[in-house]
Amino acid sequence: MTLGENICRLRTEKGMSQGDLADLLEVSRQSVSKWETGSSVPELDKLVKLSGLFGVGLDELVKGEKADPGPEQAAAPGEPRVVYVERRDPPYPRRKTVGLVLFGFALLMVLLCAVLGGLLAGVLFSLPLWACGVVCFVCTRRPGLWCCWTLFLLADVALRFLTGTAWGGFYTMLRQIVRNTAAGILAGLMTLLAIALVAWTVYTFRDRVRQPDRRFWTGTALLGLLLVLLCLPWSFTEWVRRVAVDGASLYAVSRFLQVVGLLQRWGQLFLTCVLLIRLLAVRRWTKQRQDP
């Protein structure tokens, strides 16, 4: 039997679904499905975890062959062999434990602020904890990375709508430094943080390998064109500002442009990450073909 068939058989014997096994190993259900169909092979640390969960040796897991008993373990002829297997409960995912801790701190913060008479402030200040807790429960892989992205998004929204600080290119930072030095420095720090998160995201997908085909290059070209369009200056912003004739409409237009700017920047970040991951996956595939 192949490795994938052994994983499927042992998982079925334990009464676990692919999703249950994926949660225990902290991987996606698609990864377990690929292992069982033979499309990919689990890493060594995942093989060790599978061996512990199923209570079998690596030889039996990989080859389907049980290890030969030693001289001291061999039963006498005609004597029934008794095998004692230690039963272990599947470990609780560590990411969910972290999520519960974050929920506990968030609830404690809300209760403390409610006692002090600031319930709304408690809800707002605990929002990052609630958001990261949800991420830890929802994301089976790379929860730390997605928590950092969530915190960056919340900080970006708060700075844009509360202080008017917007991170971005060199011209944006220079203009904000001229108007307000502190805001410009903060925008620069946010820009550096965005670059670091993009680099971290691309690095975590370093194991992806993709064979290019016509469909791949068509999708990549469309994503690149969309990224170029998002990077172009929005020509209709000045026209929208001219539509505002009084203070109320000018305030609404300003808020609208802030939302547009937020969506534009996050669209740029998302498309940049996707394009870099796709192109590097093709580069790895090409390198593997060139290596002897």
Structural class: mainly alpha
Largest sheet: none
What would you report as the Rg, rounded to the nearest angstrom?
27 Å
Helix content: over 70%
Number of helices: 13
Write down how many β-strands occur, each being a DSSP E stretch of 2 or more residues: 0
Query: Low-confidence spans: pLDDT under 50, at least 5 residues?
Result: 69-75
Cα(first) to Cα(last) distance is 29 Å
Q: Give the overall shape.
A: flat
| Mean pLDDT across residues | 78
Strand residues, percent: under 5%
Secondary-structure element string = HHHHHHHHHHHHH
Jot down its keywords:
mainly alpha, 292 residues, 13 helices
Would you give an account of this structure?
This protein is mainly alpha-helical and 292 residues long. Helices cover 73% and strands 0% of the residues. The protein has 13 helices and no strands. The radius of gyration is 27 Å and the shape is flat.
Task: Note the topology.
Blueprint: H1 3-13, H2 18-25, H3 29-37, H4 44-54, H5 58-63, H6 94-115, H7 119-138, H8 143-163, H9 170-179, H10 181-204, H11 214-231, H12 236-243, H13 247-290
Helix pairs in contact: 1-3, 2-3, 6-7, 7-8, 8-10, 9-10, 10-13, 11-13, 12-13
